[in-house]
Specification:
This protein is α+β, with helices and mostly antiparallel strands. It contains six helices and five strands, in the order αβαβααβαβαβ. The chain has a single domain, classed as 3-Layer(aba) Sandwich (NADH Oxidase). Strands 1, 2, 3, 4 and 5 form a five-stranded antiparallel β-sheet that branches.
Length: 191
């Protein structure tokens, strides 16, 4: 890999940030396919492929908002304003993708490894979309714990809705994140 390619990869990683308000255009089918392919290269012990993705297209956002409201009520939320507010969440972006983790019992791959694999897949997905010129926001919240929501997605109770990823184009640029002092987070092991 050339120095320029390495620099480009690192710039993409360092520039990735969550953007809350997204507009069209969203990725087309070929761009999404490229991002899904990148996602599925994540580290994955015994190649269990625990990560699944569900696309919520622009035309389905209203129905998906209704499902979110029912799911939030399923978690015990009774405040009508919150139940009404969540119906509008899908309109924060022209495209949504759900990241799901379907946990499998395996003698050599504990659930936590499968969850980490799914997180790595989502990060690859986000980075691929960014490299193609799109912005994202990875959200979760209480709604992802709803058994009603999981059932609607064909999941078992112990499976995870690892996030709702909002995808589109940023309305405006946001300031770069501050430099991180790596030495605050890295140490050398000593005997």
């Amino acid at each position: 890999m050339t120095d320029l390619a390495v620099e480009t990869v690192h710039q993409n990683i360092h520039q990735r940030q969550s953007i809350g308000h997204l507009v069209a255009p969203a990725p087309n089918a070929a761009q999404l396919e490229m991002a899904f392919a990148a996602a599925l290269t994540a580290p994955d012990h015994h190649r269990l492929k625990p990560t699944r993705f569900v696309v919520v297209a622009e035309a389905e956002r209203e129905a998906f908002g209704e499902l979110l409201s029912k799911a939030l009520a399923d978690t015990g939320q009774k405040e009508e304003a919150q139940l009404e507010r969540v119906k509008h969440h899908p309109f924060r972006a022209p495209l949504l993708v759900l990241a799901l983790t379907q946990l499998q019992d395996h003698p050599k791959v504990p659930h936590f490894e499968q969850i980490l694999s799914s997180g790595a897949a989502v990060q690859n997905f986000l980075l691929s979309l960014q490299s193609q010129g799109f912005s994202t926001m990875w959200r979760s919240g209480a709604v992802v714990e709803s058994l009603l929501f999981k059932k609607a997605l064909g999941l078992k109770a112990d499976d995870l809705i690892s996030g709702i990823i909002y995808i589109g184009t940023a309305v405006k640029a946001i300031p770069p994140r501050p430099e991180i002092n790596v030495s605050e987070f890295v140490s050398n092991w000593k005997k």
